[in-house]
Automatic annotation (TrEMBL):
Domain Aromatic amino acid beta-eliminating lyase/threonine aldolase: start-end pairs: 40-286
UniProt source species: Streptomyces roseoviridis
SUPFAM superfamilies in alphabetical order: PLP-dependent transferases
Name of the protein in question: Threonine aldolase family protein
Protein family (similarity comment): Belongs to the threonine aldolase family.
Top-level taxon in the UniProt lineage: Bacteria
One Pfam family cited in the UniProt record for this chain: Beta_elim_lyase
Higher taxonomy: Bacteria, Bacillati, Actinomycetota, Actinomycetes, Kitasatosporales
Amino acid sequence: MESDQQSVEYRARVWSGARRRLWHTSTDGTVGERLRELADWAAGTPYGDGRVDTYGDAVVEELERRVAEELGFPAAVFFPTGTMAQQVALRCWAGRTGNAVVALHPLAHPELHENGAFETVAGLRTVHLTDEPRLPTAEEVRDHPEPFGALMVELPLRDAGFVLPDWDELVAVVEAAREREAVVHFDGARLWDCPAHFGRGLPEIAGLADSVYVSFYKSLGGLSGAALAGPDELVEEARLWRHRYGGQLFQQYPAALSALRGLETELPRLPSYAAHARVVAAALRDAFTEAAVPWFRVHPEVPHTHQFRVWLPYDPDALTAAALSLTEDTGTTLFRRWFAAPAGGPPGMAVTEVTVTAPGLEWTAEDVQEAVRDFLTRVR
C-alpha cells in the first residue's frame, strides 16, 4: 500500500513535470535542476565572481542593502526564516514601547502556523481586533478596549484569500494605531505583490509602517530566507537577537543569491501576474457557472494579487485526485492539492489556492475554461 509520503512525492513529480501550468513553485524540479538554474543565473552577474559569505557578509550584505533600498528604509537584516524575523521585530518593539501586547488578525500567520511562538518563545501576548475575514478597520483599531504596543498587519492576509484593504483604508488603520501610540509592523511576506492593488510603489507602502518583514521564497521564488527592514537602531538590535535565536548561520549565499535573483527577475513581473490572475479568475467563474456547479466561490472575485482561492462543494481528496488525473492524462495542471474547509467554514466544501506566474501568462480564458471542463469530468 502506498504511504502518504509516497503519495506526496508522486504528486510533486507529476505536477512539477507538467507541460502546461498556471504557476511553478519553488519546490518544483529536482535538486540538480534547481542548483544549475541558480548557478547559470549567478554566472551572468557580478555575484558569480564574488566570494561566498561568512556569518552574513559579502552577498548577504548586498541583499540587505538591496532590500532596504527597495522598501525605502535605512537598513535591513537577513533572517533564515520569517517566523524568527517577526518574533525578533515584535519583541524589540515591545522593549521600546513597554507593552508586549500585539494586536493582529486571528488568521495572521503567527496565530495559525507557528505553534504559539509569539507567546511561548518571544514572551508576547496577542489580541484580535476582528474575526471577519478581512483586515481590521480604523474603527476597530481605535475602539479596541485593551492597550497594545504594536499593531501587526499582514499584507495581503493570506488565509482570508490573499485580501487587501484599499489604500485609504490602510492609511486610516495606520493613523488609528498612531493615535493609540502603538507602533505599526507589516507582515509583508508577500508585500512584493501589493503595488498593483494599491497603485503605489513599495517605498510608499512600506513607509506607512515602522518596520516591515518580507519573504524571499513567497512571490520571489527564492530558496528560503526573509528580511526585516526598519530604522538603524531597530535593525542593529535585531542582529543581536538573530544570534541569540540561532539565526547567525555560517554561510547563506545560495539563499541570498536566489533572493537577489527574485528581486531582479520576478519582482518586475508581479504586476503582469496580478493582471492575468483577474483573467484566470473570471474564466474559472464562467466555467463553473456553465457547468452548473451547485455552489462555488472564487475569492476574491477580482483577485487583489496574483493569488486567490477557489471553493467547490466536493470532497477534497476527490478534487485532488481529479487534479492529478488531469495532469497525468493531458500534461496540464490547473489545480493542485485541495483541503477541507477550515473550522468555521462552510461544511462539505473544499478549498484550494490558485497562483498565476510566468507559465500562466500563456493561458487564455478559453484555455482555462477547457481545463475546468476536463477537470470536472474527473471529479468522483
